[in-house]
Amino acid sequence: MIVSVLVEKFNEAYIRIKCESSISRELSEFFTFEVPGAKFMPSVRNRLWDGRIRLFSPGTGKIYYGLLPYVQKFLKEQGYEIEYEGDFGVRKLDKKDTDRFVRSIEKGKFRARDYQIDAIHKVIESNRGLILSPTGSGKSFIIYALVRYYVQKLSDQKILIVVPTTGLVEQMYSDFADYGWFPDEHCHKLYAGSDKHTSKEVVISTWQSIYKLDKRYFSQFGAVFVDEAHLAKAKSLTGIMTKLHDCKYRVGLTGTLDGTEIHRLVLEGLFSVHEQVTTTSELIERKELSNLHIRCLVLEHTKQNRMLMKGKTYQQEMEYLSTHLKRNQFIKNLTCSLEGNTLVLAQYIEKQLVPLCNLIVDNCGEDRNIYLIYGATPTDDREKVRELVEKNNNCIIVASYGTFSTGVNIKRIHNIVFASPYKSQIKVLQSIGRGLRLAGDKEQLNIFDLSDDLSYNNKSNYTLNHFSERISIYNEQGFDYDIVPVKLKDK
Q1: DSSP strands (E only) in 191-288
Q2: Cβ pair 75, 82 in contact under 8 A
Q3: Per mean pLDDT, which range of 104-113, 253-262, 369-378 is the poorest?
Q4: Which of helix, strand or coil describes residue 467?
Q5: Residue 405: is its pLDDT beyond 70?
Q6: What is the per-residue pLDDT across 221-280, written as a single tens digit (0 to 9) for each?
Q7: What residues contact residue 264 under an 8 Å CB cut-off, 6+ apart?
Q8: Going by DSSP bridges, is the β-strand pair 14-18/4-9 parallel, antiparallel, or unpaired?
């Protein structure tokens, strides 16, 4: 006997599955995942949570709409018959129509690339998408083209664009102007206490500005775009997407996923199964991004300091590295010796970023324009720095990872120094992407990846292990790199 399962479109955020309780348990087990590193979390250690995320609710039968293909695959493999209720809205469109539309909004010498048109076409066909495309690949034009399309299509609803920072609100607004639109007529910028209500068709907002608003506010939007969508694992942004339960057209864009299955599935649930439209290596090969070389500098610490750090925790190791005077002096000397605009990225503001900036100013401040940027730096000041760097070729920006690893568009960056060790795939790839955009006088982006060898008795330290993970990322991405050992002396 063939058992049937009803898949119902609950709203634009969820589908609901009506089935026997035994099938519901199977679905629940299949869509349950352990959070990486959960065993170290206090809530798990205190037995307040089992460290698992359940994407399917047996109680309600609901699961994210974007996971429909996985539900279909699972049910078919188990031999169940699927019945559908509701409009799931996939249609077939002529690619030539999309191409004609995109060409109609191009300005001047700008021409959309083939993969951009492919991404735009797939979104229009399926009403949603999760576009995986690296920094410098033109995600902002994809958003722009789709916004222009949906402005025509949605006569009585607005469009919401969600970005992670105030700087990206300004940058998106500026990009739209560069593409030939008039954002002052069509777009409302929403952040830092600005009016949440507008008659304009498009709202560009940080998620922080709107995530506490109720469903009534979100009912005005018929299309939503989330740039840097990898941040959507934050509960607040997930909340925004589920409040948009009547929003039919939903698109997420990101340069990379973090490599974990649960992260990918949450994003795909909120939007759609992801599409990798191009890669950094492909864009470099096509001469659409700068050439890239990564010099991995392995700082070999003294035997005395290796013994000192034996058995220390990760936080203690990071404290040691951030405040290590000789290490920061090495970074200072490296930075001041580099030609062109240089971006130095560090993690801790008071412990490393500010002292490091002071060292650089003392050493080469008379010859170079040096800027310090971190979370407390006003958006207008960050934008001014961006504009100044674009017009000069001898600047140094000392910045926190949080402000410059995501979305900031400065084409004329020639060098990036990773002053703090990171293993996050997202932060590593996003940070590299800061300098890959083409500029008239730039042939290559040079990355200086600093790591620290504090191993003792053949046991590697935490950040050296993180370096190994970065090397795996570089190999996976096909990046050009070399490894250079450097003896770090205390005197």
Answers
A1: 202-206, 221-227, 249-254, 274-276
A2: yes
A3: 253-262
A4: helix
A5: no
A6: 999 999 988 776 667 888 999 999 999 999 999 887 776 788 889 899 999 999 899 988
A7: 257, 274
A8: antiparallel
The alpha carbon of 459 is separated from its chain's Cα centroid by a whole number of angstroms, namely 33
Structure tokens at 379: 């958006």
Residue type, 47: R
Q: Residue 254: CB partners within 8 Å, gap ≥ 6?
A: 130, 131, 132, 133, 228, 229, 230, 267
- Rounded to 10 deg, the angle between the 462-477 and 314-323 helix axes is 80
Neighbours of 153 (CB within 10 A): 14
Which residues sit opposite 129 in a β-bridge? 251
pLDDT at residue 448 is higher than 70: yes
Nearest in space to 88 (alpha carbons), one of 2, 16, 190: 16
275-312: pLDDT as tens digits: 899 988 888 888 888 899 999 999 999 999 999 999 99
How many angstroms separate the Cα of 447 from the Cα of each of 55, 101, 159, 295, 466?
39, 39, 38, 6, 17
Q: With helix as H, strand as E and coil as C, how does 429-458 read? A: HHHHHCCCCCECCECEEEEEEEEEECCECC
